[in-house]
Every structure is written in structure tokens, then in C-alpha cells.
Recover the amino acids of this structure.
């Protein structure tokens, strides 16, 4: 951890979550102007109810800081990033409990210790007071998606009409922030002259457009380009007129200028996703080639993309046997890097020292999920075979992995009686005798998944048939080539 001044070394420290770290950075930079700190109970309630602080100041979403209950008595708190680098000292004005979620929170004003140094493209990040704009209109585009040919044309048209300079705010916080910024930089030459691109870490909220407008206003924007009109924006929201692709002359232009029968609306999000999954070429009329390249980099074809195959089931259900058979089959096929994270092996190495309490079992699954996500991020196939009895923890692993690639859940649903019959280690007998506490299926529940992509009962099919069923699923999904 970076050294603190002597007077701060004895203060408690806390690492906020990703969204709250983003809020902290925006508070410290002035991008959340006129806010100066995290909300207390009253401001949170009035913003949720009516989009205003208790003093009447318009603001669309709560900006809160969640902490463990033991920190609610602190009067000063060091806020640090995930690497332990101190970013600010929070001067606490209120500790309170959210009446809806039950979470404990702190209100107060953060005093900056140092500028944040984490996250991609940090050199491009600018505080609002670091930007200089010429007098006149400034049109902001706050986007979480690349700008394709239609959006670029609409942007140029609106900027020309308003006689405005352009500011592109790249909103970070998604799974592919680096690709977003690279895609925007790739089309900077197609933007109106002197357009600036500034990455901004902005959490997604229900009143997202209104929040974007406040941040854009803090950066000096007079107008915000939006897809649809919405009330309550801090600056004028501009909805561009509809554009489409004129197949007759092969250019994008306003719909009113296109002859009927020659209109091509573009690609829907679902169509674009399907083309990327299948490895099809993204047409040049839809997006510039450098943007298409970034889309492919962020979402490779499924046969190249990392994937985690996560088996879950009772002890003795046969999940380890099927997982090992799947790993062997994929290695024999070639073309993919395969990592097998079996429950017993993981317990001996990755999770040595953990008990079988619910807390430690959850930690074991999270560790497996973290490793699987890293394998997936690098384009490999991770095969996991823990019991993973709790739905919430499985969902957490799914989210973790899905940020890096794809996740396939296989429920090995072999009945408890058959699992007990196969039990060579005598674990079930010991559990029934009370010698093993919190044993899944006996003294602790197994929450059957309702979101499994495949269900296998190894009491009715052979291990070879079970492996073949998983291979067929992976082939049908495009993750492996069919035989």
C-alpha cells in the first residue's frame, strides 16, 4: 500500500466496489458537480422519490457508499483502490442503514489524496477543469457503444446545425472498456474537427440518460445527443432525425431523402451479435473497418472464444468422471487449450486449508470461478466440476466468467440414492451418522439449478454418452467444430 501521511496511518481503510469507485472518481474530479460527497439517508430518499436532493437541487440517482457495519462508527475513513492505493479520506457526516436493502452506508465528503491510476486509457482521462472549450455550443455524445456509420452521420449533421464543437464521452464500466475506447479513437478522423474523446467511469443507472446529461454539463456541454427524448436532463437533449442506408447510392443519409424501396435500416444488436458469434464479416456499409476489427476482438467467434463448462451436482453424481472425459475428448480434437478444475484437485491445491462450512464452500467456488474466468479471458476452455450447491454462488461465478467469455452450466442430476450407493469413501454414511456436519444432500441443501444449459442423469446413461451429450451441446453452440 502506498504510504499515508503520518496523521492518517491509524485510520480504518475500505475498498469500495467498482461502481462506488467510479462515483468516487467523479466526485473528486468535479464531473458530478454540484455534488461534493456521498449521500445520507434523507438525500437518498428524496432523490429516489423525486429526482432532487433535500435542498431542491436536481439530481437523478443516489450516490451512496456501502461499508461493513463495523465501519459505520468511523469519523474518518481512507478510501483505496483494489491494489490498496489510498485515493481519498472520507470525512464522515452520517452512518445509516438502507431501509430497503439493509446495507450499511456512510455519508460524507471525500478529500483527495491522489488521482486514481487504475483502469484503461488513463492518459486520456481528463477532469472537467482540464478541458478548454471555445465559446459557443458544445455537443456531447455519451456512449457505451462504438459509433457506427449511422451515428457518425447523425452526429455530423446535428453538430453542423448547432454550429457546435463535439465532445465524445466514452462511458467505462462494461466488459470491454478497452475495445470501446479503441473503437472511438479509430473513428476520430470521421468526427467534426477538434472533437475530443474523454473516457469517463460512469456506473449504469436506471435514469441513465439524465445522469449522462449532468456529467456532460460538468464537462461544459450545452447539448447532449440522445436516441430518444427524455425529461429532466441537465442540458438540452437533441434527438437526431432518422437515418438509414441508401442502397441505391450506397451512403447513409436522412430517411426522408431516400427513395422508397432503397432503404436499409442497418443491423440490429441481435443480428450483429449473431454475425460476430458465427465469425461472419461485418459489412463495411454498417461500420468502418477499424470498428469492425474492435468488435471482433471484443467478441471473437465462438469457436475461438473462451468458455467455461461448469458441472454441478451431488457428491458421487459422476460429474468428475464426465468432466475428465470431456477434457480428454477436447484435447484429442485439438485446437483449444483445456484446463480441468476438478473439485478434489482444487481442494488440495487452490483451496487448501478451507473447511466445509458454507462460507468456505462459497469461497472455494469463487476461487474456482476466478481461475475459470482467467482461463476464459485468454481464449481457453475451463472445465469445472465442484458440487457448487448454492444457486447464488453459481450465479456469481456465471457473472464473473461472462465478463470474459461464455459460460455453460451442466447439472449432473443423478439421484441421491444412486450417489449414496456409489460412495466408495463412506462420506454419506458418516454424514448420516452425524460425523460430517453440513454435508450436501444430507444435512445441508443442494439447490438444483433452474438455469442449466444441459441436465444429465448418469444413473440412466453411460459416462461416454454423457460426454457425447456435452460435446453435442458445445458443437451446437459453436464453441467447437462438429466432427
Amino acid at each position: 500500500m502506498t504510504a499515508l501521511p503520518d496523521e492518517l496511518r491509524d485510520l480504518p481503510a475500505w475498498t469500495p466496489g467498482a461502481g462506488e469507485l467510479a462515483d468516487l472518481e467523479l466526485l473528486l474530479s468535479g464531473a458530478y458537480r454540484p455534488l461534493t460527497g456521498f449521500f445520507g439517508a434523507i438525500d437518498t430518499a428524496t432523490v429516489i422519490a423525486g429526482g432532487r436532493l433535500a435542498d431542491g437541487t436536481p439530481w437523478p440517482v443516489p450516490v451512496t457508499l456501502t461499508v461493513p457495519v463495523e465501519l459505520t462508527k468511523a469519523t474518518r475513513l481512507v478510501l483505496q483502490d483494489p491494489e490498496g492505493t489510498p485515493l481519498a479520506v472520507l470525512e464522515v457526516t452520517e452512518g445509516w442503514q438502507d431501509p430497503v436493502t439493509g446495507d450499511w452506508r456512510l455519508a460524507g465528503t471525500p478529500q483527495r489524496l491522489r488521482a486514481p491510476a487504475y483502469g484503461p486509457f488513463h492518459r486520456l482521462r481528463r477532469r472537467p477543469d482540464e478541458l478548454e472549450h471555445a465559446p459557443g455550443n458544445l455537443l456531447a455524445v455519451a456512449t457505451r457503444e462504438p459509433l457506427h456509420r449511422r451515428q457518425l452521420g447523425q452526429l455530423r449533421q446535428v453538430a453542423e446545425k448547432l454550429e457546435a464543437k463535439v465532445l465524445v464521452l466514452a462511458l467505462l464500466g462494461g466488459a470491454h472498456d478497452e475495445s470501446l475506447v479503441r473503437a472511438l479513437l479509430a473513428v476520430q478522423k470521421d468526427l467534426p474537427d477538434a472533437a475530443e474523446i474523454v473516457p469517463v467511469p460512469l456506473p449504469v443507472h436506471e435514469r441513465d440518460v439524465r445522469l449522462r446529461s449532468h456529467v456532460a454539463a460538468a464537462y461544459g456541454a450545452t447539448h447532449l445527443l440522445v436516441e430518444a427524448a427524455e425529461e429532466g436532463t441537465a442540458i438540452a437533449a437533441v434527438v437526431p432525425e432518422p437515418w438509414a442506408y441508401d442502397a441505391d447510392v450506397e451512403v447513409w443519409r436522412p430517411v426522408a431523402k431516400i427513395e422508397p424501396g432503397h432503404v436499409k435500416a442497418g443491423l440490429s444488436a441481435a443480428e450483429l451479435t449473431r454475425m460476430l458469434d458465427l465469425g461472419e464479416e461485418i459489412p463495411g456499409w454498417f461500420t468502418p473497418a477499424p470498428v469492425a476489427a474492435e468488435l471482433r476482438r471484443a467478441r471473437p467467434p465462438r469457436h475461438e472464444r473462451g468458455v467455461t463448462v461448469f458441472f454441478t451436482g451431488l457428491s458421487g453424481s459422476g460429474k468428475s468422471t464426465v468432466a475428465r472425459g470431456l477434457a480428454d475428448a477436447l484435447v484429442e480434437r485439438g485446437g483449444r487449450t483445456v484446463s480441468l478444475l476438478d473439485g478434489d484437485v482444487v481442494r488440495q491445491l487452490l483451496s487448501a486449508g478451507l473447511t466445509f462450512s458454507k462460507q468456505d464452500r462459497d469461497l472455494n467456488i469463487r476461487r474456482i470461478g476466478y481461475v475459470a474466468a482467467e482461463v476464459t479471458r485468454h481464449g481457453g476452455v475451463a472445465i469445472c466440476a465442484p458440487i457448487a450447491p448454492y444457486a447464488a454462488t453459481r450465479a456469481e461465478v456465471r457473472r464473473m466468467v461472462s465478463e470474459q467469455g461464455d459460460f455453460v452450466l451442466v447439472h449432473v442430476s443423478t439421484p441421491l440414492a444412486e450417489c449414496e450407493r456409489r460412495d466408495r469413501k463412506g462420506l454419506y454414511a458418516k454424514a448420516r451418522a452425524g460425523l460430517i456436519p453440513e454435508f450436501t444432500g444430507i444435512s445441508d441443501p443442494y439447490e438444483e439449478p433452474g438455469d442449466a444449459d444441459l441436465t444429465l442423469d448418469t444413473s440412466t446413461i453411460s459416462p461416454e454418452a454423457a460426454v457425447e451429450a456435452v460435446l453435442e451441446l458445445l458443437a451446437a453452440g459453436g464453441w467447437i467444430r462438429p466432427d
